[in-house]
Fold this protein.
Amino acid sequence: MKFLVLNGVNLNMLGIREKELYGDRDFKSLERYIKKSAKQAGVKVVTRQSNSEGKLCEYIQKAYKKFDGIVINPGAYTHTSVALLDALKAVNIPTVEVHLTDVDNREDFRKISYVSLYAFKKISGQGFEGYKTAIDELIKKLN
Ligand code: DQA
């Protein structure tokens, strides 16, 4: 099994941005955590991050017929992007949505997620561990 893990806008600022919410570990350490989790689970993983909505759509489009599953944390695009939703629908690859923070218990606008309309599972508020949970959920779904 081969999974694409996509991180969106401002996730590269981990360790710098709002540490009281997102913690002090940086983005490189998140990527290391994701790769370690995938290895332990016995799946292949490719990680990508972009601050550009269009670039994220391109990563999703290029995943067509190349990946068995997608884990996505779109950052703030979660709450605004019909384009990401449409891209996921287009490639029709099983997808889990992840958020480091508990988005349903923050500002009201964070309760809206377009990606949720496609993803079969949403994991939020588990920090880094949410990505491991997402990988496990994808494996369960595909088996
Ligand atoms: C986030 C939550 C979003 O609301 C926010 O815009 C982010 C990060 C999270 O991982 O908790 O950038 O997706």
